[in-house]
Structure prediction request, 669 residues.
Amino acid sequence: MRSPFFALLFVLAASIPWLAAQVPSQHPRVPAATLTVDAHQPGAAINPAMWGVFFEDINFAADGGLWAELVKNRSFEFPHRLQGWFEVRRKNARGTLTIHEDSPAIPENPHYLRITSQAPGEGYGVGNEGFRGMGIRAGEGLRFSFWARRGPDASVALRVALRGAENRLLTEGSIQVDKTAWTPYSLTLNPTLTDPGSRLELTLEHPGQVDLDAVSLMPTTATHGFRPDLMGLLRDLKPGFVRFPGGCVVEGHDLANRYQWKRTLGPADARRPMPNRWLDNMAGEGRFAPDYQQSFQLGFFEFFQLCADLGAEPLPVLSCGMACQFESGEMVPAESLDPFIQDALDLIEFANGAPDSPWGKVRAHMGHAAPFGLKFLAVGNEQWGPEYLDRFQRFEKAIRARYPQIQIIGSSGPWSGGADFDTLWAGMRELRADLVDEHYYAPPGWFLANAHRYDHYPRSGPKVFAGEYAAHPERPAPGTPRPNTWEAAMAEAAFMTGLERNADVVRLASYAPLLANVDAWQWSPNLIWFDSLQAAPTPSYWVQQTFSRNRASRILPVQLAIPPSATATAALYASAAVDDATGEVVLKVVNAARRPADLDLRIQGVQGLGGTARKTVLSAGLADENSLGAPPKATPVTSDVSVPGPAFSQTFPPYSLTVLRLSMKRAHP
Prediction:
């Protein structure tokens, strides 16, 4: 029996269009349309690496995100040397904190902290706040390490503690600093309580002096330095490639601020940090981030290691000597471009060279003797204009001459169409780019309207890399993030059927951006939101995962026939492919209408189709989101369905993405 409130809801839904879209319709289902799949002659091959991820150090995605280090400003090299640190002065304590750079532990990062305790009382020293709090889990071991030297008088006992809310002690230990020369020390901590906003405290228990540098606190479960829960979500995506180190951070707001991959190699403690491109919220949205620096602890070697851990192709993007054209627009003079081109050639050698080659030796010395197998390299991010085409031509010529096997990716600019877009595409064809990087951030309706965007693209020449895309709903209020709604994710799914259906033209695709800290974001929406302890995969994440986990081998033609009386089913989008490894037809259908859609399915060119099919469905209300700490509203549900033969009917829920995996035996010609 419906409650009076439920009845009132239906009355309101009938009179308010938005609400009507959220309430399941009680109207009769529309007459069946017919979806025909021709499995007799599979078409073009689908790139096995087609569905990938885009990583940029935005929204604290690296430090404070995927990189599991918990200490902020660990080497005291931020412009404000003690940013992230604070004085700890317990009862009756007296002392000083000073920054020095004479006789440093690490010459490349010379600043270090001196703690001098005249009267320690109940403890004098320093604390670190972490990245919007340190997420500490009970039972998860932590490796604390640092460089230190004692003062001239005597050894000092350094007390190491983690404290949470209401000053609760989560764990503690002690290290005796007994050398006057810089020495590495370490200690394993085992917290007994969980706290999302804890802090690290280092205090002296007796009068004395100690110098500290390169202070680190890392979970022992962080294989290769990556935060385990976020890595688990990335693994579950099964990405075919990882594009890194980003978009705008590659360019920088000026050339000095651009990403320089060689600065990110070598011993982690010797990598010099620099201000992040998104410092001070330069994009004009999100949370103010005056402490946003890049430590480069997650550098190019770690990016390649990440790809190896995920079984994904590495796809690096390098500066072409042009800073962000929306900001400074600074360009290196054409006659000074050679060092930028050499950086590209050296990177290929770093990734693929023999361990005795100059840059292959650097890679091997860092712990990976085997080549990483680099196949792709993007020149520039969202550049445009004749200056970019000239620079791309010079990169292309040099790379082809030495590494003809590398697929070179060019830019189509930041727009999805228009005069600059068309000029760049014409230039990319003339300059023999292998792929052209297209970006689109637009309302959900754009993605629905462009699901057939690539149906009529030229089948020859450069292929498409859909390098950055996301459906952008309206912002609920100024200063709030754009929501990751199911409506946005469903629109992306419809668009992705068009990418897959045209896999002979579209070879690679990645949603952007990948990660965002809920307390330190500059861009929205994003694929995964997280805080210090938890992560929330968005509806868009589950769409990406559903496509990636249901890869197939070759395109199958699909035709949708809609009777005149069933115009509502015009909101249907579909792609089909054959998985050669499993002998299955993989059918993806998006129903973007508010009513269920009955479809008569016809799988032609097969014999013996029948039995049980695997069905995965994603469906939710248009405004539904997945939030931290709450049960998800949009996740895939998988079940088995009975298939009587090559012709059968299926109902597709409103506002849904459905994948059917149908076992088949192909008919003989």
Observations:
- The longest helix spans residues 386-402.
- The chain has three domains: 4-46+553-666, 51-68+225-548, 85-219.
